[in-house]
Amino acid sequence: MTFIRNHLGETLAIDFFTVPTVTFDVLYVFVVLSLERRLILHANVRAHPHAAWASQQVVEGLREDSSFKFLIRDRDGSSGGHSIDE
Question: What pTM does this model have?
Fold first, then answer.
């Protein structure tokens, strides 16, 4: 927690969450958040996400602001081993 507080301005977080539709399908929402400003930098929705798509969403979320140095994510494997470089 101390690390996060000390580097809040340079840190972003990413996460997936699911949304059920009226037709009982499941959509996956991908969100990139700035922790310092508590602001959504980027969000996208997909029915069948894959690791390359998730990596691209992080790149899209950083297009406006490249001052971030740290990324907080869980190790669920949804972003795979793909690089986040452009």
Answer: 0.67
